[in-house]
Amino acid sequence: MFIEINDGSCLENLQIIADESLENYEDIKKLTTGSAVAVLGNLIESQGKGQQWEMNAKALELISLAPDSYPLQKKRHTDEFLRTIAHLRPRTNKYGAVFRIRSELSFAIHRFFRERGFRYIHSPIITGSDCEGAGERLSMLEARMKETGLLKENYWWYLDSRRFGTVPHSGFGLGFERLIMLMTGTSNIRDVIPFPRTPNRIDF
Question: How many structural domains are present in the chain?
Fold first, then answer.
């Protein structure tokens, strides 16, 4: 029997040839889409069409068997549906590719700044409101908070970071997600973020 596997490192699947000589062949026949396996075998030139190489399995271990309810079947799914299963969508070709590109871009940016003496810090990221405009003067920032109905006591730490020893800066991020959109042609910013948070939606 033929089995297609993918480890997430590229778009193409690898075809596995599993024959009846395998001692757990009867269990192998029960494999379903989304199952996890570990395969040991020889990589050989394929005699069939559609792939250059295939693997002749010498041993195939069933790590986990996916139930029939596995949501990613062999068909094209809409982006809207895939957003509801953000924890699984990296297994699709499109999102696997997008997030591999995201990984490379993130590494390149970190390397750029590290080579120039910068340090990476983890600042608070979960907030109930948009805090762009952090580079504004403190008085302007407080006036804007009052205008929009934000309670200053809820953002004491943020105001302190502007009050005590701040320096002029842009106040905005690098636009990393929009860079990924540009690089990949993805039209919706929610689809370049592994687990996007939107108003009234914080499932993941």
Answer: 2
Residue 69 belongs to some domain of the structure: no
Amino acid in the structure at residue 5: I
Do 44 and 110 lie in one domain? The reply is no
* Interval 67-97: pLDDT, tens: 999 999 888 899 999 999 999 999 999 999 9
Say what angle helices 156-163 and 138-148 make with each other, to 10 degrees.
Answer: 160
Domain around 131 = 79-191
Q: Find out whether 175 and 182 touch, Cβ atoms under 8 Å.
A: no
pLDDT in tens, 105-163: 999 999 999 999 998 887 665 555 444 554 457 788 889 889 999 998 988 887 887 77
* DSSP letters for 36-53: EEEEEEEEEE-SSSS-SE
